[in-house]
Amino acid sequence: MSDGLKCPECNSENVYNDGTLWVCPDCAHEWNPEAGAGDSAVEDGVIRDANGNVLADGDSVSVIKDLKVKGSSLVVKGGTKVKGIRLVDGADGHNIACKIDGIGAMNLKSEFVKKA
């Protein structure tokens, strides 16, 4: 099914491709194998988007897939443009702080955005 690709979280071989990301149905981990090794897009202090472009404070990005807002029924739709991001050192992998129209302030993972 995955041509030898394994989940970096649980090492399961039961993974599938969903657009630009790979998904593990066993542990629900999603990743982009082209973004490099590691769980997030942070290597050597550089934060990169899903396509490997370097992000900086004040950049505008677009969300690449629908994201559920935890603890709410809201959904950030794929294609939503976010202006004026701020890069943060999130312990949970959320390394972008931003404000999204209609939703408010929230944190995003850089692997779910692309530079606009």
Explain how this protein is built.
The chain is mostly beta strands and 116 residues long. It has two domains: 1-38, N-terminal domain of TfIIb (Single Sheet), CATH 2.20.25.10; 60-115, SH3 type barrels, CATH 2.30.30. The chain contains no helices and 13 strands. It has strands spanning 16-18, 21-23, 30-31, 42-43, 46-47, 61-63, 67-68, 75-76, 81-82, 86-87, 96-100, 104-108, 113-115. A three-stranded antiparallel beta sheet has the order 1-2-3, with no helix packed on it.
Please provide a brief summary of the model:
The chain has no helices and 13 strands.
| Uncertain regions spanning at least 5 consecutive residues | none
Name of the CATH first level of the largest domain: Mainly Beta
Gap from first CA to last CA? 33 Å
Q: Could you give the count of β-strands?
A: 13
Task: Output the CATH topology of the largest domain.
Answer: SH3 type barrels
Rg, please?
14 Å
InterPro entries: YjdM, YjdM_C, YjdM_N
Family: Belongs to the YjdM family.
GO molecular function: hydrolase activity
Domain Protein YjdM N-terminal: 6-32
